[in-house]
């Protein structure tokens, strides 16, 4: 599916996740966050950067990983991205939704 | 994003085996990760999972469990249950599954409410300090039903 954000066309799947990370930019992330009702702070971006780095090094993302990340604790993670933190943060980060059950 | 009609999951954990505790934990955590509210009510043997001294010693049931593919006589021998539990824990660790205590911390931090059953706590002569610090309180079953206060609430007995 095609989607136009900030005058740029990006490819997304039916759930709205970017298919090609090279199309991602901070501006696009900002728009995607807004659609989820989230206004981005420095802490949000720190988490996004962490997720993108983990994704690039091929590590599976999980809530347990967040606990050990040293970037953010689980409570704060839920506060920053309410209503499904890992699925919302990965959507904003332009990376695939984690497939893990934990 | 897809919008589930499930808004709140209330679990009753009545068994003290490792596999049942994990079933409740994985489902409760999965609910929170989808933005669904989750609460667990620990009753009868399920209380073993929130007793400080016992929670890291839960076992898989090797007797009376046909899916273990182990003769009942063998499953009852000393040490077999411990061995099977150890093997299962090893497999779960490979999948990055947290141990019971850490899982309870994750659930609590994730906003999952954890409740002890008053009747069972009294029956087993337990005190509040025997139970994990993360516990949100001790409730009667009636109190727990009252937690089902919105449309889209589901109750699950494990």
Q: How large is the count of helical segments of chain A?
A: 5
Beta-strand segment tally of chain B:
5
The succession of helices and strands of chain A, N to C, reads EEHHHHH
Number of DSSP helical runs of chain B: 6
The class by helix and strand makeup of chain B works out as alpha/beta
InterPro entries (chain A): DsrC-like_C (IPR042072), DsrC-like_dom_sf (IPR025526), DsrC-like_N (IPR043163), DsrC/TusE (IPR007453)
GO molecular function (chain A): sulfur carrier activity
Family (chain A): Belongs to the DsrC/TusE family.
Protein name (chain A): TusE/DsrC/DsvC family sulfur relay protein
Please provide a written account of the structure:
The complex is a heterodimer of chains A (102) and B (158). Chain A has 102 residues and is mainly alpha-helical. Helices cover 46% and strands 8% of the residues of chain A. Chain A has one domain. Chain A has a two-stranded antiparallel sheet. In chain A, strand 1 and strand 2 form a beta hairpin. In chain A, helix 1 runs antiparallel to helix 5 and helix 2 crosses helix 5. Chain A starts with a strand and ends in a 9-residue tail after the last helix. By secondary structure, chain B is an alpha/beta fold. Chain B contains six helices and five strands, in the order βαβαααβαβαβ. Chain B has a five-stranded parallel β-sheet with strand order 4-3-2-1-5. The mean pLDDT of chain B is 92. Chains A and B meet through helix 3, helix 4 and helix 5 of A and helix 1 and helix 4 of B.
Offer a concise description of the structure.
Chain A is mainly alpha-helical. Chain A has helices spanning 26-35, 42-56, 63-68, 74-80, 85-93, and strands spanning 2-5, 8-11.
Secondary structure elements and pairings:
The complex is a heterodimer of chains A (102) and B (158).
Chain A: E1 2-5, E2 8-11, H1 26-35, H2 42-56, H3 63-68, H4 74-80, H5 85-93
Antiparallel strand pairs in A: 1-2
Chain B: E1 8-13, H1 18-33, E2 37-42, H2 72-75, H3 80-94, H4 100-109, E3 113-117, H5 118-123, E4 137-139, H6 141-146, E5 153-157
Parallel strand pairs in B: 1-2, 1-5, 2-3, 3-4
Helix pairs in contact in B: 1-4
